[in-house]
Amino acid sequence: MPLLLLDLDNTLVDRDAAFRAAVVAFLAEYGLPDADVGWVMTVDAGGYTARHEVAAALTDRYGDVAPTAAIRALLDHGAADRVVLARSSREALGTAQAVGWTCVIVTNGRTAQQEAKIRHTGLDQLVQGWVISEAIGHKKPEPEIFRAAAETVGASLCGAWVIGDAPHADIAGANALGLRSVWVSDGRRWTEDSCRPTHIADDVASAISHAISTPGQGAADPAPLEPRSGFRS
Description:
6 strands, alpha/beta, Rossmann fold, 2 domains
């Protein structure tokens, strides 16, 4: 069965929205300025800033008011406790499996936090497996993590699609292995020169629909990406 290799954060689930909600609650609990939400989100950088660096920045700014345990809880559980799976994403995964695709989550991050998101949203019941960078010692875009995903379900990468929101991790990883890919843009404009997706979709449900309805096996040339107005960078 062909593989769908799916990113987790800000692809299958809106990790940033969940973390933002956690930050709002944290600031309110300790009487900190609402306006600091933007600062925290910038420091967090969509989860790509190392957690110890985010913790150090928050402690430096809020350490006189918020206890270390509260800052740690925000970073360890804030997003995982609030993340949700959209109905459209759930239905798209169900459709993919119904027509014979094997769905595997491929995510960078810490094992405890990423597995908490997967189980909290019910994704553990909707995919055939997952691989997490901390657990296997490789992270996207390294080819080893994609190969590990295929091995997890006893499948080949031949004919696989990679779906994700991160050009440098998901799309670059797919390009390196000669796999087809869909970039989940969420309204952004494609600006990378070093790699290109096969297709661009606004959301993960549309991305899954495109992948499972496109005939053919193996790699495909990236489609021409024309600039589109009305998209934020």
